[in-house]
């Protein structure tokens, strides 16, 4: 592995783990697995997994026009946020294509944190600065910020054990607490997730990340917590139909085509891409992201073409043999006429045609907690 790749603050801990396998992920040397993708996937679905996602980007947006600026560059309605609340949203270009999907955290009326995809940090930073309003400041704090993610049905108990207090119950979904003391670190703790399970994110100073990682693993050991890598993170988010930038989202795919219209508030006022998205919605969205399942042997993979006879009607954006459901499933962006449930078509899998059909998504939904 090249020494030129970026590394998270937890990299020195990886070297002591015999089963870890590191890969180049968008210029970062990151663990794709620690003990096996299937095992880590199952741990998150049934107990808990701990992810190092410190490669993600964090920008602080501040100033008297911070809210107006974020309203201008994102599709969701930032004005609905109160202090301590977070929101999923997207940035679009003038044509409605997606620059990135991101989270927005409101710390105060004049201070927000945005969390962007690692591969888009430089691009997003330039995009934001290009569209700044007067007296608004965007600061890239990615290099000094570590991010750990606890995911799974047992994470509330693990977080409470690590904190030594009833912390999890103070956080509703898409809320956060700042300046939480954990393992010697002052953390921002939020409750969002990217796996289809309950989840908490812990943002901490980079230098304090190793101690926080050890604390969480120690507190989680009685609950079956395991470190998990990028491989399980991808299969988990896929089963829950959560998008991955560069696959379900891109400059060539609009949020409406990706099925994310709920996060596009066309009635909030003007924002970049609004005219194009409004026109697309009015004319009828030409392509739709659908769940698919193969009817013959074969696993859908990113980039596979979708055909009706000799005519290509779309392409697979993500796909795998689902570890939870044991079915060959995929997400495909297809012409709208082919998006109805049970519609059948062909996939081109390495030159061989394999029959597939449209199936409901998300493929996996977590069961509500027992109320005994």
Put the structure in a nutshell.
Among the domains are: 11-53 and 143-239, Probable tRNA modification gtpase trme, domain 1 (Gyrase A, domain 2); 286-359, Aminomethyltransferase beta-barrel domains (Elongation Factor Tu (Ef-tu), domain 3).
Write a structural description.
The protein is an alpha+beta fold and 372 residues long. Among the domains are: 11-53 and 143-239, Probable tRNA modification gtpase trme, domain 1 (Gyrase A, domain 2, 2-Layer Sandwich), CATH 3.30.1360.120; 286-359, Beta Barrel (Elongation Factor Tu (Ef-tu), domain 3). 20% of the residues lie in helices and 34% in strands. It has eight helices and 19 strands. It has helices at 11-14, 37-46, 66-73, 121-130, 155-163, 209-220, 230-239, 274-283, and strands at residues 21-25, 28-33, 48-52, 57-62, 85-92, 98-108, 111-116, 137-140, 145-151, 176-182, 185-190, 199-205, 225-228, 287-294, 305-308, 311-321, 328-335, 344-349, 352-359. The strands form four sheets. It has a six-stranded mixed sheet with strand order 10-11-12-9-3-13. α2 (37-46) packs across α7 (230-239) and α5 crosses α6 (209-220). It is globular, with a radius of gyration of 21 Å. The termini are far apart. The model has no long low-confidence stretch (mean pLDDT 96).
Estimate the global geometry from the Cα principal axes. globular
Overall CATH architecture of the domain at 11-53 and 143-239: 2-Layer Sandwich
Strand content: 25-35%
- Average residue-wise pLDDT: 96
Q: Tell me the span between the first and last alpha carbons.
A: 51 Å
Largest sheet entry: 6 strands, mixed
CATH homologous superfamily placement of the domain at 11-53 and 143-239: Probable tRNA modification gtpase trme, domain 1
Helix content: 10-25%
Structural class: alpha+beta
Extract low-pLDDT stretches: none
Strand order of the largest sheet: 10-11-12-9-3-13
Count the beta strands: 19
Order of helices and strands: HEEHEEHEEEHEEHEEEHEHHEEEEEE
Classified by CATH, the class of the domain at 11-53 and 143-239 is Alpha Beta
Number of helices: 8
Gyration radius over CA: 21 Å
CATH fold field value of the domain at 11-53 and 143-239: Gyrase A, domain 2
């Amino acid at each position: 592995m090249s020494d030129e790749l970026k590394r998270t603050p937890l990299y020195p801990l990886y070297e002591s783990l015999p089963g870890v396998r590191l890969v180049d992920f968008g210029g970062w040397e990151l663990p794709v697995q620690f003990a096996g993708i299937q095992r880590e996937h199952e741990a998150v679905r049934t107990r808990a997994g701990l992810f190092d996602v410190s490669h993600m980007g964090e920008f602080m947006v501040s100033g008297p026009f911070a809210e107006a600026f974020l309203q201008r560059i994102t599709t969701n309605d930032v004005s609905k946020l109160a202090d301590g609340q977070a929101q999923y949203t997207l940035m679009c270009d003038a044509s409605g294509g997606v620059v990135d999907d991101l989270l927005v955290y409101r710390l105060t009326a004049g201070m927000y944190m945005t969390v962007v995809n690692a591969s888009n940090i430089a691009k997003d930073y330039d995009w934001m600065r290009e569209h700044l309003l007067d007296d608004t400041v965007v600061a890239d704090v990615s290099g000094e910020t570590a991010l750990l993610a606890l995911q799974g049905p047992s994470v509330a108990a693990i977080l409470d054990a690590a904190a030594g207090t009833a912390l999890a119950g103070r956080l509703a979904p898409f809320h956060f607490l700042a300046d939480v003391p954990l393992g010697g670190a002052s953390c921002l703790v939020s409750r969002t997730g990217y796996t289809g399970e309950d989840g908490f994110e812990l943002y901490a100073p980079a230098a304090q990340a190793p101690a926080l990682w050890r604390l969480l693993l120690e507190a989680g050991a009685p609950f079956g917590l395991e470190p998990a890598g990028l491989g399980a993170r991808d299969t988990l988010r896929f089963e829950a139909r959560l998008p991955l930038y560069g696959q379900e989202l891109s400059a060539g795919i609009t949020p409406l085509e990706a099925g994310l219209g709920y996060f596009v508030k066309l009635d909030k006022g003007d924002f970049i891409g609004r005219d194009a998205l409004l026109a697309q919605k009015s004319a009828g969205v030409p392509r739709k992201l659908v769940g698919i399942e193969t009817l013959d042997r074969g696993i859908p993979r990113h980039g596979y073409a979708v055909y009706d006879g000799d005519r290509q009607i779309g392409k697979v954006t993500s796909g795998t043999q689902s570890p939870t459901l044991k079915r060959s499933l995929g997400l495909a962006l297809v012409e709208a006429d082919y998006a109805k449930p049970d519609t059948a078509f062909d996939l081109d899998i390495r030159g061989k045609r394999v029959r597939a059909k449209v199936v409901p998504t998300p493929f996996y939904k977590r069961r509500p907690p027992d109320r005994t």
